[in-house]
Design brief:
single chain, 134 residues, mainly alpha
């Protein structure tokens, strides 16, 4: 759980830094088009939200150890990394113009989203199957 707390803290730190970068540097200095800025905002939003969710999942896992949230947490961590990370690279490719980035990163965005869905699905299943009496 310590590693997950560190991961969550680092994720939120990065999201705040990249959010500021998107709001100022990408928009004002590099004059990125609005659709690229919106993609960047989506990545920051998902990374921030899931970073906070990881904190909550650690608290829940400690309060109710029989929930066994390890797999849920793992899928969410992988998913948010792939989803947000690929969007950051795809957005920055507006200036880099490297043909390889969309080929590699493009498929990672939906895979990351799927991993987050699996993580939350596992959470729902675990909560549904757990007896909270006692």
């Amino acid at each position: 759980m310590k590693n997950t707390l560190i991961f969550a803290g680092v994720s939120i730190f990065i999201a705040v830094a990249l959010g500021a970068m998107g709001a100022h540097y990408l928009r004002e200095t590099l004059e990125f088009p609005i659709q690229k800025i919106e993609s960047w905002k989506t990545a920051v939003q998902y990374q921030s939200l899931h970073g906070l969710a990881l904190f909550a999942l650690v608290i829940i896992a400690n309060l109710v150890p029989k929930l066994n949230l390890e797999k849920s947490i793992t899928f969410i961590k992988i998913g948010m990394s792939l989803f947000a990370g690929s969007i950051y690279f795809l957005t920055m490719n507006y200036t880099w113009e490297m043909d390889l980035i969309p080929k590699i990163m493009g498929p990672l965005t939906p895979i990351g989203g799927l991993c987050m869905l699996i993580g939350w699905g596992l959470f729902i299943v675990n909560v549904s199957k757990t007896n909270f009496e006692k």
